[in-house]
Structure prediction request, 232 residues.
Amino acid sequence: EPEVTQTPSHQVTQMGQEVILRCVPISNHLYFYWYRQILGQKVEFLVSFYNNEISEKSEIFDDQFSVERPDGSNFTLKIRSTKLEDSAMYFCASSDSGADPLIFLHFGNGTRLTVT
Amino acid sequence: AQKVTQAQTEISVVEKEDVTLDCVYETRDTTYYLFWYKQPPSGELVFLIRRNSFDEQNEISGRYSWNFQKSTSSFNFTITASQVVDSAVYFCALSVQETSGSRLTFGEGTQLTVNP
Prediction:
């Protein structure tokens, strides 16, 4: 069964550094998402992306964050200058087109980001 | 705005006991989807079930069953004859149709521990 792939599984970075989290969505999917889960807390929506632009973003997704689909297969989340509070598990997700893209959302296994 | 409440932060049971995880949701939309996800200690999100707002039929899948009641805005999840492998955090989530992009709103999660 096709799956969403995230790399790396764990990334450690120093405060103030830029970090790029990478995701390869399922190949025929058109809707892409990032979610975040701070350790021990709930999963929170960050951003959705469709047709090469952001379709929705949450209040968490400030100017430090950006997303990009640099080629036909990757979907990236960039954090420009990481802060300690950015430490979290980041989940990428994708879904195919249709009347309701959330009918079935496929999540990747997550990238655990640790900011020191 | 959407909201999902999982009032039980932690539940501990002994193997073979039945356990019910509660989920209460809030939305003004008439069309929405409800989900349950399992998050084992390894951290990934495992999809368990999706229901739409027009289908109030209860569902059973093996030892798992779900009780959807619109009258009380609840979507409860029961594990029958629990096993140690059921130990995980369980998240209830809600989505509504948006004009562009869609987001899942998660509850805070219930940590289930099944003891041998």
Observations:
- The mean pLDDT of chain B is 92.
- The two ends of chain B are 41 Å apart (CA to CA).
- Residues 31 and 54 of chain B are 7 Å apart (CA to CA).
- Chain B touches chain A at residues 33, 43-45, 47, 50, 91, 93, 95, 97-98, 100-109 (CB under 8 Å).
